[in-house]
Amino acid sequence: MTEKSVLIVGAGVFGLSTAYELLQDGYKVTIVEQSDQIPSESSSSTDISKIVRADYSSAVYSKLAAESIADLEKNWTEAGFFHQCGMVVLGESDYAKASYKHVKSMYPEQVRLLDQSSIQDVLPKNVPLNSLTRTAYQNKASGWIESGRATAELARRCEEMGATLIPNFTVGRVIWSGDNDRVVGVESASGEVLDAALTIIASGAWSTLLDDQINKMLLASAQSVAMIKLTEEQHERYKDSPIVINLNTGIYMFPPTSTRYFKVSKHHAGYISRERNAPVSIDTKREQLGEDEPPLSISKIPSVMYDELRNGLKEVYPEIANDSSLEWKTRMCWYCDAQNGDYIIDYHPLSNKSLLFATGGSGHAYKMYTVLGKLVKQRMDGTLDAEMSDMFSIQRDTEQVPVVDKSRLDTVRRDFSVAFMAEGQQQPK
Ligand SMILES: Cc1cc2nc3c(=O)[nH]c(=O)nc-3n(C[C@H](O)[C@H](O)[C@H](O)COP(=O)(O)OP(=O)(O)OC[C@H]3O[C@@H](n4cnc5c(N)ncnc54)[C@H](O)[C@@H]3O)c2cc1C
Questions:
Q1: pTM (2 decimals)?
Q2: Which residue among 42, 43, 192 has the greatest number of ligand 1 atoms within 8 angstroms of its CB, and so is best to mutate?
Q3: For 10, 125, 149, 394, which has the most beta carbons within 10 A of its beta carbon?
Q4: Domain 5-391, what fold?
């Protein structure tokens, strides 16, 4: 391999964004992916939608997300997968207050506080809204991305730029040199070896399986998502609605897709499997939703999560929550949590810069669509800003199980158990 060559493990948004950035700088890039399709239906970077928001309590993430939004507007509009529908943030937590301050300073014209009457103007007309009395603001700069489609498009552009993409290649181990002072490549589960001057592990929640150091720093936490198929009449009324996130409960919801799927989920500590490293824990069985849909699959969620999602939805759109004729599809998706919710973009300390981790998305990395690759490149070039260099460092307290970031209210993770999983197509009560 030439000096400027790199091997990336994982074709999620971390891996592909990194590939995209390095290809522009003349690197020879090989990406290996365990799935036969991109996005992999088990990855975090699939699904019908992810929020793209600069609404963070951290100034660093706010700025990075604003950079991403500007890039999506400038370079990816013709791809048609970014929808800047705006977002309504409910809640009076410190996180909400700090977030408002950051976005108000970046988008003075697009951000405003809402009271009970102005909130009615922002949300869909003729919808029997519950009394939304709490503090709220609107940020018109936020939106959502068709994540499954956008991941496929990023992969397509990487291949067009010369990347070699190898599907069905599951890395079984990273190969260290005889002196154990550098990584020289990877070996697949079936024994195939690929040499590499630089290996980048971007395998999301599976990263823990490839290295002891990273295994101590990451935790896969399962989150529950529901997709509700609206009627045509409801779709017409809700299609121009903003994203709504309630920072008092963690419940968030999107406007319906063109195929009428309305998505609701909860950003919380989530569920963990006690079998921390077992691949089965991050690969709950799924079925495809249907041919007419972008990548989206269904699986069961804990029955208690049905109630939480439905009750959270009731607070905003009771009409949808209470309509027992609507079909609910569900899925579980795994966050890859790192300590304090900060991404890990750093070299293995003993690898002499031959092994780099780009992972630890912690439930909020998708929106950094092309920014992630820029951060990786800056780490490689030694130009990462000092504050981010610390934030994304691998040198963290590895004694503790990763602590969730402040955007999630609960801190205690629940136990993942098949016993309380509900049926995937259960109707709301
Ligand atoms: C329910 C849910 C909602 C979310 N909502 C948002 C949101 O609204 N906004 C936002 O910004 N972010 C959101 N996120 C977070 C975001 O999706 C993730 O942070 C991001 O997608 C992580 O990307 P990744 O590349 O690290 O991991 P992944 O997308 O999981 O990619 C890792 C890839 O590596 C492959 N792989 C794993 N092991 C191997 C191996 N040994 N060999 C080869 N390949 C391998 C996998 O198959 C996979 O394709 C959400 C996540 C979930 C689960």
A1: 0.94
A2: 43
A3: 10
A4: FAD/NAD(P)-binding domain (3.50.50)
